[in-house]
Amino acid sequence: MPGIPRLSLVEGPFEELSSELATYLDTVKGEGSNVASEIAPLLADADKQQEGQQTDKDAVLKKLVTASSVLNSAPERELQAAYNLLIHLISQAPNPEKFLPHVCRYLSAPITSSPHNGIGIALGILGTIFNAVQPDDDTRFHVLLSIVDVIRNSGNYETLRPQLKNLDSWLQEWEMEDEEKRKLFLAVADAASATNEADDNYIYLLKALRTLQSDATSTEARDLSIRALKAAVQIEKHFDFEDLTALDSIQALRKSDQTWSEILELFSSESYDDFQDFKESNPSFCSDNGLNEDTLDRKMRLLTLASLAAQATQTRTLPYSTIAKKLNIASEDVEIWVIDSIRSGLVEGKLSQQRQEFLIHRSTYRVFGENQWREVASRLETWKGSLVNVLAVIRSQKEEFVREKEVELNGGGMQGGQGYRPDRRQRNAPAAIEVE
């Protein structure tokens, strides 16, 4: 059989096209395949059509879809056309959503006939299926899962990134339950992790974790909480842990996994020295859990520097010696660490080599609690007092201006309309305002 040359535009009755695809599947599968003979009795022949009976399309498609797993070994030049034909036939079924997940699963598997172009072909076909389904049909959810799976296996995460902005609106449109949302979020997180996209991996782990807060003490919630926490502490530029500490499942770790709970506490509010004490008490914790100690040490030093800057509320300066001691670094490395902290967005300020001090312009609070609110209230009160003083000065200047204008007007009346304009240097002298 010469194959199926061009089927991007499919024409013909269901019966004829089904028979053609069945014959092609028998050819690809080889000896022993008899799909064509199996569906022949199910197709509407001339006698059935004369009697007004309809072809049992679901029964025909069941056999065709089951046999189509062999298409991944079909010649590359015929592969997409064969899948297009299968999709066209499925679209004519009373319930196409019964068959599309199977096709998606086939496309998620490697295309053995095209090791180099198989990923692109699979994504192209899956994209065709996704766009052919109505926007509010939840069948799109299963197609998208397969697309994400193919991308994860191929490491081509950039292909998926532009579509992620639509993810939340799609899930809302499809009215997905939390379990389905979690499945998709985790699939995206896995795809991001496969290409070392640590930030996106964490973002979608967090989204998945938020779907479990109604059952925060479950084993799944516990495992996912640890996974998210582990990701958070290893992202070099992630310094805000409030998003985690606010979750019930994370709070539940205090009872189920105290060591991980302690890790979160360390990175949320403690110092570099505290982290070293933790490692001494738990010498194998980092290696057992695949944590990079160098990454964690660096982050804890930066966070400690941020805390030091936030605590220096009175002097607004930090001596180099204090920084070196608290970060356990050499004095000559202080400026490098301060610059790294500035680049990370944790602090803003100016280094003074002459005075050996870091002048703080802005600092980041790692934990914003009652003490921080008191400080904000104090600063607002000071600001309010300053504004009151500024307003008093403005009011005084305005009153002085009004008095001067009155003097000018009175002086002008006594001089026959010429107006009296005292010299600027004499305005405040008593003699200058007399009109006698």
TrEMBL record:
Segments spanning the bilayer are none
Keywords per UniProt: Cytoplasm, Initiation factor, Protein biosynthesis
Domain of life, per UniProt, equals Eukaryota
Among the GO molecular function terms of this UniProt record, one is:
translation initiation factor activity
Does the record carry Chaperone as a key word?
no
Protein localization: Cytoplasm
Give positions of region: Disordered: 409-436
Provide ranges: composition bias, Gly residues.
Answer: 410-419
Annotated ranges, domain PCI: 197-365
GO CC, sorted alphabetically, is: eukaryotic 43S preinitiation complex; eukaryotic 48S preinitiation complex; eukaryotic translation initiation factor 3 complex, eIF3m
Tagged with keyword Cytoplasm: yes
Q: What processes does the entry annotate via GO biological process terms?
A: formation of cytoplasmic translation initiation complex
PROSITE patterns in UniProt: PCI
Q: Name one Pfam family in it.
A: PCI
Could you give the subunit structure recorded for this chain? Component of the eukaryotic translation initiation factor 3 (eIF-3) complex.
Q: Which family does it belong to?
A: Belongs to the eIF-3 subunit M family. Belongs to the CSN7/EIF3M family. CSN7 subfamily.
Explain the purpose of this protein. Component of the eukaryotic translation initiation factor 3 (eIF-3) complex, which is involved in protein synthesis of a specialized repertoire of mRNAs and, together with other initiation factors, stimulates binding of mRNA and methionyl-tRNAi to the 40S ribosome. The eIF-3 complex specifically targets and initiates translation of a subset of mRNAs involved in cell proliferation.
PANTHER family in the record, alphabetically? COP9 SIGNALOSOME COMPLEX SUBUNIT 7/DENDRITIC CELL PROTEIN GA17, EUKARYOTIC TRANSLATION INITIATION FACTOR 3 SUBUNIT M
Could you identify this protein by its name? Eukaryotic translation initiation factor 3 subunit M
